[in-house]
Automatic annotation (TrEMBL):
A GO MF term: cytoskeletal motor activity
Domain of life: Bacteria
Pfam families tied to this protein: FliE
Primary localization: other
Record keywords: Bacterial flagellum, Cell projection, Cilium, Flagellum
Protein name listed in UniProt: Flagellar hook-basal body complex protein FliE
GN (gene name): fliE
UniProt similarity note: Belongs to the FliE family.
NCBIfam families xref list: fliE
Gene Ontology biological-process entries: bacterial-type flagellum-dependent cell motility
Length: 109
């Protein structure tokens, strides 16, 4: 779930920014990232975490195929599902970022 923390922080920042743009006061949830956090750094961190989860799942899968006795099938399946869920979440964040970018570009100044 650690990889989803960064993604949730990014989504929270996007919601806060959209509320400010709409003129409503921003909400301050408990999971809000510190104000000094760089958006690009948060995004890179989230991508790195997704990559790490996928690499771990790939290594576990390779170990299972090689017949290593300390790797169980259910552990491999769980790690593969975690990798899939984190990747799908990252795709959703990307889609939301693209949509937000398009909306900003269509705003009249």
């Amino acid at each position: 779930m650690d990889s989803l923390t960064g993604i949730n922080q990014i989504i929270t920042q996007i919601k806060s920014t959209s509320e400010q743009a709409a003129g409503s006061p921003p909400t301050q949830p408990a999971t809000m990232a510190p104000a000094h956090a760089d958006f690009g750094q948060l995004l890179k961190s989230a991508v790195d975490q997704v990559n790490s989860v996928q690499q771990t799942a790939g290594q576990m899968s390779e170990s299972f195929v090689q017949g290593k006795p300390d790797i169980e099938l259910h552990e491999v399946m769980i790690s593969l599902q975690k990798a899939n869920i984190s990747f799908q979440s990252m795709i959703q964040v990307r889609n939301r970022l693209v949509t937000a970018y398009q909306e900003i570009m269509n705003m009249q100044v």
